[in-house]
Each structure stands twice: as C-alpha cells, then as structure tokens.
Amino acid sequence: MENNIKMSLLRHIEHIVELSEKSKLSEKFYEKAGEHIDAVCKVLNVNTIQTVFFSHLVDRSNDGNTSMSEIAEKIKIRTVRLIQYQDEIDELEKRRLVRCYRSGNSKSYYVPTEVLDALRKGEDVKSAERTNLSIEVFFDTLNQLLSQLCDKEMTQESFAEEINHLLNENEHLTFVKKVNNQFCTHDLHLLLRFCNIYVEDLDDSIYFGQLDDYFESRVFRGIKRELSNKANTLMAEGWVECVNDNGFESRETFKLTDKAKEELLGELNLQPPKVNLKKDILEHDKLVVKQMFYNPKEQKQVKQLTDLLSEDHFVNVQNRLKDKGMRTGFACLFWGAPGTGKTETVYQIARQTGRNIFMVDISETKSMWFGESEKRIKEVFEKYKSFVKSEKKTPILLFNEADAVIGKRKDVTTGSVAQTENAIQNIILQEMENLDGIMIATTNLTQNLDKAFERRFLYKIEFEKPNAEAKQHIWQSIIPTLQDNDAAELSRTFDFSGGQIENIARKSTVDSIILGEEPNLNTLVFHCNNEQLAGNRKPIGFNVKT
Predict the structure, then answer these.
(1) 109 touches 67 (CB < 8 A)
(2) Residues linked to residue 359 through DSSP beta bridges, in sequence order
(3) Residue-wise over 423-459: b if at least 16 C-beta within 10 A, else e?
(4) Going by DSSP bridges, is the β-strand pair 240-245/330-336 parallel, antiparallel, or unpaired?
(5) 357 phi and psi, to 5 degrees?
(6) What does residue 383 show for φ and ψ, rounded to 5 degrees?
(7) What share of residues in the chain are helix, strand, coil (percent, to 5)?
(8) How far apart are CA 124 and CA 9, in angstroms?
C-alpha cells in the first residue's frame, strides 16, 4: 500500500503541471493544486514554489536542459517575478534535485537521472550518501563532481562546497588526512585534478589544456604562471613536478611525483594495465629456429649483443651500471635495407637468450584524434614496464619498422599532425632515458633518424646486403639440393638480400608442389629475373633454356 502511495508522486507532479499552465500562479491555482502540491512537498521536503518549478522540470526531462524563462512562459509569469524566485531554484540545485548548466550568463536546468529513477520506482528521493566511503567510491564520487564542473553543470562555488563536504565526511581515509586543510582552495582543486587523472587513466602527465575547463580564466592564468615558474605550492611540497622532455624539464607538462603516488594514492593499490599476452607477446620458445648468415662485421656485432643479453652477463652488467649511477636500460638500433634480416635477428636473439618479445604495432599508436596518439604511446611503455615486472627474464621491447616514430622532428608550424608526431617522439625519448629493460628498434631509413634518438641508442648495427659468400650460404641453406657452383654463380650474378632469396625459394617451392618436380637452375634464374625490378636488372651469366 505504501509503495502505491509513493508511486502516485508522478501523478501529483503531472496534475501540478497541468493546473499551473497559464495560471500565472494565481490563488485559484493554489486552491485547485493544493492537494497535489502538499503531497510533493511532504515527500521531497521542499516548499510550494520549489515544487511547482521542480514539477515542470520533471515534465520536460526528455527535452534536455530547460531555462527558467521557458517555464515562466508556460506558466505566464513575467521575468521580474521569475527573478524573485531565483533563490528557490538555487535551493533545488543545492539539494541535488536539479542540476544547472551554465554557459556565459545563461542558465538551464535538468533533473538528474538518479532522481527520475527514484520517482519512477517510487523510492525515496534523497541525496547520494557520501559519508564513510571506501577509497574507491571516494574517487568515483570525485570523478563525478569534476565531470559536472567541467560540463558547467556546477558552479565553482558549488563544487568547492561539495568537495569540502566530501573531505570532511571521509576523514578516515589516508588520502583525506594528507590533503584536507593543507592547501588553499585552488591548489587543493588542482591536486584533486592531478590525482583524478592518474586514478582514472593511470596517466600522471597533465598538459595545460587538461586543466583550463576546471578553473575560471583568471585563476587558471595564475596557476599556469606558477607551474611554469615552478612556484606552485604543490611543487614546493613535493607532490607535483615537471615532466622530463628530451633531457630538459618541460614547463608545459607536469605529473604527480612518486612520493604523491605512494603517500596519497597508496591505499588504492593501483595496478598498471595488464598486458594482453595473446596480442602483444611473442614467446621465445615458440619462435622457429632459423640459421642466419651475416657479413663478418655484422656477425661480430650480433654475437656480442647476443652474449650481452644472455642472463648471466645481462644481470651482471646491469648491476655494475647501477653501482656506478649509470642508466641500466639497453636501447639498440638495427638498420639497413629491407630483407637483410633485422627483424629475424631480433627473433633469434630472443630465442637464444630465452627472452619473450613485446611487439609494438606502430599503426595502433597513431590516432586521428588530437592527444590520443600520445596517450597510446604512453600506454605502450606502461604495459612494457608491467610486463618486465611479471617476467623472470627481462623481455625485449620491439619497435619494428620504427621509421614513422623516430624520424626527424617536424616543423610545428605545418599543423597539428606535426605537433602530435613531435609529442610522440618526446615521449619515446623520455621513456628511453628512463628505460629499465631492453628496447630494439628496426628501421630502413637512417638518414631520417633524429639526432636525439641516435644518441640514445647504445648499440647500432647496420645490416648490409650479404656478400657473395654469405649469399651462397643463404641459397644453399634454403635450397639444400643446390650445387655449390650453381649457388656461387647465383650469388655473384644477383645482388639480392636474404629476404629476396627467400622469396625466390618460396616461389620455386610452389612450382615444385604444382608441377611435382624439384626446383632446377632454370626456374631459379627465371624467378630471379622476375624478382628484380626492370630498371635494376643486370646481365646474367646463365644461358637459360626456354
């Protein structure tokens, strides 16, 4: 029976709306609507005029935001009378029965979903409980309040009031004990914004563009000036610091310090995003054994790197570097023409040293949305750091075909794309500076390599096209039936990379399957001629039978 009475509240609201239309809120209206107004007043604990405006906002809840002047037009009251009721409307907002959207000097209102749901279900309409919250619910509530502030659904004054209430009612939390009553209002709200971004996105770097919607223009200009000059209280207290950009402190990008993450957010026990092993990881024991043939210089360099990455040597070298205060990460660059074995060498090194490979898909790090690409490249390194912690042996971070992200800086005056690509490079440079692992990048175009990247690659190995001896070994390893003299002649005649030789062998294998006969010299020469582009063909020393 009680539930039926509560369910009738929407009917009371419906009658109030119908009776108030064109009523000018006359005494006659109050007489006719008195029963319905009293019912709503009793349940919501609001007064008569608040009930009328609330009822009209409920009635227009499907129309988006509604201005008070629209309701005044429906009721047929003058603007001067509406002004007299502004305090009543503000009280509805304070009670969280309605929300206000502000744009310049204009205001419009709507009834939040949770209030409409309560009316529909016949439940008590009351403010969300914000006392004795868990740390997780506390930050969920903070995120909601910040979203409402950003969307102009709440004034700065209302936001400050809500934050004070949220903090004062949750003093049992370590976070609240650390920040409550410690800062001025602007610094407190700035710190809350930093913490919110880190908790929601695990992103501790903030650009000025992520802050201006949360502060009045005058206040934001002051905050921007303080952060740029390292004069902000949060920086002095060790909670916020500049981001390292290419070895220099950025004056436009800032982040929470490790101290802040540990002391303020430690009770959240935040975990970095889990690595998707199926998608991103090549496991070393599933890599196919493949014999590689190099020129003498490459052979020596590849062997040295493989020996270094053997576990005993690697751990010992890292410890020695750490003792000397040097960086412990190893960044390597494999460069050279396509098909010279750069990527396959990474696979074989990983297989021989027992290290899994974290693959980076360059195309997935690039987004058409401004700011999204930077976020994705940060996520790559966060995932790798998480993967390093979960592995017994430090895995290899592989940027395959990395030309697109380690090339020369663009002129920022050419547009937002250049700015985004430069921002991505800055992030990669910073992460390489702090690398505690193994990174290998492969590229075909070193003439476009930015100098800042060149300095950060400790090992650089050039993969040249194989010499005649190496090519002969490649021919005979891929096609074991090939005679020594034929393999030697093919090597001298065709200036192919290992990848091109493998292409020819694959085509010959397909022929043998279709025709039922082993590849012979004639078919090999035929495929060799087709492999070369017309402008690159050289006379060959074979008399091919047709």
Answers:
(1) yes
(2) 398
(3) bbbbbbbbbbeebebbbbbbbbebeebbebbeebbee
(4) unpaired
(5) -115, 125
(6) -65, -40
(7) 60, 10, 30
(8) 11
Rounded distance between C-alpha atoms, residue 456 and residue 384, angstroms = 18
Neighbours of 522 (CB within 10 A): 13
β-pairing, 357-360 vs 281-282, is: antiparallel
Tell me which residue has tokens 């419009």: 108
Alpha-carbon Rg for the chain in angstroms = 34
Q: What kind and span of H or E run contains 231? A: none
SS3 label, residue 357: strand
Contacts of 314 (CB under 8 A, 6+ apart): 308, 353, 394
What contacts 180, CB < 8 A, 6 or more positions away? 167, 168, 171
Which residues, other chains included, contact 21 with Cβ-Cβ below 8 Å and sequence gap of 6+? Answer: 74, 75
Amino acid at position 504, single letter: I
DSSP β-bridge partners for residue 399: 360, 441
Q: How many CA atoms lie within 13 A of 238 on its CB side?
A: 8
Q: CA separation (Å) from 276 to 384, 418, 427, 528?
A: 11, 30, 22, 41
Kindly report, residue by residue over 226-275, the tens digit of the pLDDT.
999 999 999 999 999 988 654 457 788 888 998 999 999 988 888 655 54
The string of DSSP codes covering 375-410 is: HHHHHHHHHHHHHHHH-SSPPEEEETTTHHHHBPPP
Are residues 460 and 446 in contact, defined by beta-carbon separation less than 8 angstroms?
no
Report how far residue 155's alpha carbon sits from residue 105's, in angstroms, rounded to the nearest whole number: 12
**pTM score, two decimals?**
0.49
Report the percent of the chain where pLDDT is more than 70.
87
Label each residue of 313-328 as H, E or C. Answer: HHHHHHHHHHHCCCCC
Structure tokens at 12: 């009371």
What is the full DSSP assignment across 255-314?
A: EE-HHHHHHTTGGG---PPPP-HHHHEE-GGGSPP------HHHHHHHHHHHHHTSHHHH
Residue type, 215: F
Distance (Å, whole) CA 386 – CA 379: 10
Asked whether the beta carbons of 501 and 495 are under 8 A apart, the reply is no
pLDDT tens digits along 165-211:
899 889 999 999 999 989 999 999 999 999 998 898 777 678 888 88
